[in-house]
Amino acid sequence: MKGKLIVIDGGDGSGKTVQSLLLRDYLKKNHLPVSYFDFPQYDGFYGQIVARFLSGEFGGLDQVSPYLTALVFALDRATVSKKISKHLKKGNYIVCNRYATSNFVYQGAKILHQQDRDKFNKWVFDLEYKIQKLPKEDIVIYLFVPWQIGSVLSKQKGKKKYLSDKSNDIHEDNGVYRKKVEKLYLENSKKNKHWLKINCVRNGNLLNKQAIHAQIIAILKQKKIISKYTDLTKSN
Question: How does DSSP classify residue 54?
Answer without folding.
Answer: H
